[in-house]
Amino acid sequence: MRHFRSLLKKDIRLLVSGKFFLMSLGCLILYTLYVNFGYLRFVNAQLYNVYLYDPVGTQAAVSELMQRVSSAEELDMALREDTNGVGIDAGTGTVRILMYEGTEHADRHRADYALSLLRPAEHGAAETIGSNTPEQKARKEITCELLFFEITAVGFLGMASVLFKEKSMGIIRVHAILPLQKNLFVLSKLVIFLLSDLLFAVLLSSLNAGLPDTIALLPAILLQTTFLSLIMALAGLICSLLLKDFRQFTLAYLVLAVFVATPVFLSANTAVKLDWIRFHPFYHLYMGLKHAYFQTSTPGPSYCLGCAAAIASLFAAVQVLFLREMRKEI
Amino acid sequence: MIEVKDLTFSYGKDRQALHGLNFAVGDGEIFGFLGPNGSGKSTTQKILTGILKGHGGTVSLFGSDIRAAHTREFFQKIGVLFEFPYLYANLSVLDNLRYFASFYPQDQLRDAEELLDELEFKPDFLKKPVSSYSKGMRQRASMARALISNPKLLFLDEPTSGLDPAGAVLFRQIIENERKKGTTVFLTTHNMLDADLLCDRVAFLSNGTLVALDTPGNLKEQNRNHSIVIEYLYQGKRAEQTIAAPELRAGIPFAYDEIIRIHSQEPTLEDIFLRYTGRRLS
């Protein structure tokens, strides 16, 4: 236990000197400001502006979101300036929809949206399901995405930066001849990153998804954070033990971020459906976290066993690479 | 203390690094292990320190086979000074020593400040980060790390590298003091002066094979060519002649006005190494 305490203390000092905790705090503040002052305003904003030219007043019961213009020239000018906007020309008595061409699906949506504002009474409110208000839903969605990003990106890079620092100092070799159980060296790093990620998850969720909701969701969120944090920290250790320097690591990380994370976000958050995504382990981890925030399903035993097996295999691989690193000539 | 019989090791199928080494190191002995780069010195030291596994032959330390000796107790008894001063650059020397000392039993440890004082470490730098130290100070800090646990067996790899002449003399004195305490020292070096001044016995390693093993004195004696060079003045001219040592018994066998210098032709360890291996150390 004394050995483990020494390792923990040393790793914390390394992280403090590398400004890791400061960076995490900075991320927390930045994300919170973005959610509360940027994202929520953005999701509440109108998708498209709709302009109505109706000189004789044939359209009486239009939505308040509709913007009236006084002439055909003004309607033309508005659409030139706002190329995503939709114009409705009711000057001849019949309704004519005008807009710059976009994509086929989006154009249909724009036209339908403009007509729904023209005759709001005909478009009855849809029956909503689930207990989340739109704001709660938006908050949980973005908090889930930010937490996933933070753990996969910042935690992963943070772990690698610590290990690269120790590698460059040659200090790993010294641990080979210390009367120390060698796996404690890796274990202490995992514990620190896990605790740091768990604390980050609690703070980020409390500040952005709301405290009462967070208290109810916390056990599920923390379980998913634990899985993701350990897997990413171990993946970071493997990459930093395999690759020569931090520059190579950042290039590998770019590949990971672009080719691994992009399909996950696309499949999970948009209408894009990729058949093969079910074979992507990060998709399941992301969906696990999303389910935790929305309480849509609880993780089954096969999912938990899969995560535990992945963690155990990665840990074994790290041990092998770590022992190889200790034997290296520096 | 150390007993090595038919030690072999290979990196992969076709890279045999050690070809059946045999040697023994007694308690309290300073044993020099000399060889050029790539001769197998580091591989041997890694096997002896328990870092490298998978060797052939038998290696026993402290009376037990090394395969069974990789326990916490084994690592508590050894100290290793690596060729480069591996320390946490963001921590001070004191914090480094406290950290490394924390893995050893409390009653085995030396006082860090006393040890650094013995190594003539500049007191102003005790609390400054290692990143601000000179090469010599890092080497002192590294030596303190190797000695803090009072090891019974000390592995030293190029201990005087990076030190000025006064520092090298101090380190030799400290190694001598360790021997007086009963510590066994396994010294790996390119520095022939260190080997000559410190070692009870030296082993020459070349291409994974031991080519010579004896005391520095015996090696010199066996390789002496028994000739003497005399530098003298005769009729206003400076001259030099080489004669066989027994010839000197009957006096100087040539005419001279004044003897300037007489040199016995004792070979250096470097010369002997070259003779055995056909290669220079550095």
Mean model confidence by pLDDT of chain A: 87
State the share of residues found in helices of chain A, binned by percent: 55-70%
Q: Largest inter-chain interface?
A: A-B, 24 and 28 residues
Number of DSSP-assigned strands of chain A: 4
Given as residue ranges, the uncertain stretches of chain B (5+ residues, pLDDT < 50) are none
Task: Characterize the largest beta sheet of chain A: strand count, sense, and whether it forms a barrel.
Answer: 4 strands, mixed
The total domain count of chain B is 2
| CATH class descriptor name of the largest domain in chain B | Alpha Beta
Count of helix runs of chain A: 11
Tell me the number of structural domains of chain A: 2
Q: Write the CATH homologous superfamily of the largest domain in chain B.
A: P-loop containing nucleotide triphosphate hydrolases
The shape of chain B is: globular
Q: What would you say this structure looks like, in words?
A:
The model of chain A has no long low-confidence stretch (mean pLDDT 87). Chain A contains eleven helices and four strands; from the N terminus they run ααββαββαααααααα. Chain A folds into two domains: 2-41 and 132-327, no CATH class; 50-122, no CATH class. Chain A is mostly helical. Chain A has helices spanning 2-17, 20-44, 72-81, 104-118, 134-169, 171-175, 183-208, 211-242, 246-269, 281-294, 301-327; strands spanning 50-53, 67-69, 86-89, 96-98. In chain A, helix 9 (246-269) crosses helix 10. Chain B is globular. Chain B has helices at residues 41-48, 66-69, 72-77, 93-101, 112-118, 135-147, 165-181, 192-198, 216-222, 269-277; strands at residues 2-10, 16-25, 30-34, 56-61, 64-65, 78-81, 153-157, 184-189, 201-206, 209-214, 227-234, 237-244, 258-264. Helix content of chain B is 31%, strand content 29%. Chain B folds into two domains: 2-220, P-loop containing nucleotide triphosphate hydrolases (Rossmann fold, 3-Layer(aba) Sandwich); 226-265, no CATH class. Chain B is built from ten helices and 13 strands. Chain B is α/β, with parallel strands linked by helices and 282 residues long. In chain B, the strands form three sheets. Chain B has a six-stranded mixed β-sheet, sandwiched between helices. In chain B, strand 11 (227-234) and strand 12 (237-244) form a beta hairpin. The model of chain B has no long low-confidence stretch (mean pLDDT 88). The chains are: A mainly alpha (330), B alpha/beta (282). Chains A and B meet through helix 1 and helix 6 of A and helix 3 and helix 4 of B.
